Amino acid sequence: MAKFSCNSSTGISICLTTLLSSILACLLLLPTHANTAILSSSRNLAAFLLTSEKHNDNMQHKKPLYDHKNGPEYYRPGIRESLGGDMAYNEKNLQRSQSTYHTIRNVGGIDCVNDIYARNTIDPSKRFWYIGKVARCNGTVSLHHAVAKQWNLFEEHACRLRPVELGRSFKTNTFQLWVTNKGDSEQDILQGMKNNYNGNDDSKDIHLTQIHRDVIETDAHILQQISLMEVGALPEVVTNRGMGFCITCDDNGNICLP
């Protein structure tokens, strides 16, 4: 019996062709009914090989789940390379941003810090999810520019933090970032929730302001001049047992009851 050996990927097609030729040649030595059965099997084998080749070719040219031009079908953090340069979502940039956050806060205090929330406008419950804090040198950088400068970090972290609630809004116009008018406002907001926002506690002075995505383009020349040492971020961390923190606001950023 002939013995076949394929030692490289380029020889696979030649080996298969030789194998099929040998099978067809053997048909001449068999009875008619056997010829019919084996010929049918050979045809099925050839059809399978052709189908597999087309399938593999299609897989190589399959459109990725994330299209940087047209946006994602849905958010999956592991299917693409993180973009954004100094603000790409990776360990190096996150550590640098957190270190800068603590440096700015230690020098400037709470006046340099604001809480940041993310929202998916498709969500009918109007929930705003707490995703961390932003710090800036408030003498040289505005709050809007501090968030816009780090937009990529905040957006991707938000979608990783709340993939169900925010994931589908990743890189779309339904994703929004909002900031509080004061830092470390979580406890005041929690107290307001307990009191049903009756206006008798510090939560009455807290409201949110939206940071629009288009600032990234309209003020690109200003953002390029902001040093990495002038802005920082402290992303929120949720453990497996944590439920996260969210508030309900109207479209103007006023906190209200759910």
Structural features, described:
The protein has 258 residues and is of the alpha+beta class. Helix content is 40%, strand content 17%. It contains 9 helices and 9 strands. The chain has helices at 12-26, 32-60, 91-108, 143-149, 151-161, 163-166, 186-194, 215-218, 220-225, and strands at 66-67, 71-72, 113-120, 127-136, 175-180, 208-211, 231-235, 246-249, 255-256. Strands 3, 4, 5, 6, 7, 8 and 9 form a 7-stranded antiparallel beta sheet that branches. The longest helix is centred in the N-terminal third of the chain and has 29 residues, at 32-60. The protein is globular, with a radius of gyration of 30 Å. The chain starts with 11 loop residues before the first helix and ends with a strand. The relative contact order is 0.13.
